[in-house]
Amino acid sequence: MQRFPCPFCGLRDETEFHYGGEAGNDRPEPAAEVSDQGWAEYLHIETNPKGRSREIWVHMTCGEFFLLERDTVTHEVFASESLRRAAP
Ligand SMILES: [Zn+2]
């Protein structure tokens, strides 16, 4: 069983987490005028990379969403970062 590092709770069993989708700066936002088909593809079609990837996960125990950078082949975890922003 894999263990993921929640930025708030520390290492926990993978059964406590849910996958939220791919993340990354290399995925451009669609244009303001986008077709229904284009928007559906943006929301639901993922690249499913092999190797190092950035993903959004949620820790169901504390309810926090965070960015997880890991290798999808070796399961090595490189980083875990909160998606919370500091209050202005
Ligand atoms: Zn947590």
Automatic annotation (TrEMBL):
It comes from the Bacteria. Pfam families: SoxD. This is Sarcosine oxidase subunit delta.
